[in-house]
Structure formats: C-alpha cells, structure tokens
C-alpha cells in the first residue's frame, strides 16, 4: 500500500506545474496545476489519461467539443487526442492517471 500525500492539491508555480506522485510499469499518477487565467500548452500524449478535477473551474476542449469542468468531474482522454483546458476561471488542480506510465516527450 502507498499513500499519496498531497496528490490533487493545487501548487502555484508559473506557468503550470506537473508533479508525478506514483509510477509503476503499467501506470503513473500525478497532479497538474494551472493558475487562474493560465494557459494550458500541453501536446497530445502517447498514453490514455483520466483527469479528476479536485479544484477550480475551466473549460475542457477536444476535437469533439468543449465542456465546462469543476471539482468532482472526471474526464477520459484517448492516447494522441488533442486536448487542453481553457478559460481557467479559478486555480485548477487535477489528479492525472496515465496508462501506461507517462513517458514524457
């Protein structure tokens, strides 16, 4: 068993902050923080992702549309799918689950 202390808690660093809290051979978990008014400049990933919004409000955009998101929302993104958070109204904190483990770019 492993307890992930601080996972999903907003960390204010400019411009954005991603901290990995766990990595195994098949998955990884981290916290992604974007300050209010910030810009999400991420590119598509090779891994599938699940985002759990733990705080804040924004709009999530993919080629299939846009969706307002807030605390408690869960989003699934297929590998290689374009996606980003826009109109970040409140400091946004997200638990991010990657499968397989995030490889970076």
From TrEMBL:
Stretches assigned to the Cupin type-2 domain: 32-86
Organism from which the protein derives: Kribbella yunnanensis
Origin superkingdom: Bacteria
Pfam families tied to this protein: Cupin_2
InterPro entries in the cross-refs: Cupin_2, RmlC-like_jellyroll, RmlC_Cupin_sf
Protein name per Swiss-Prot or TrEMBL: Cupin type-2 domain-containing protein
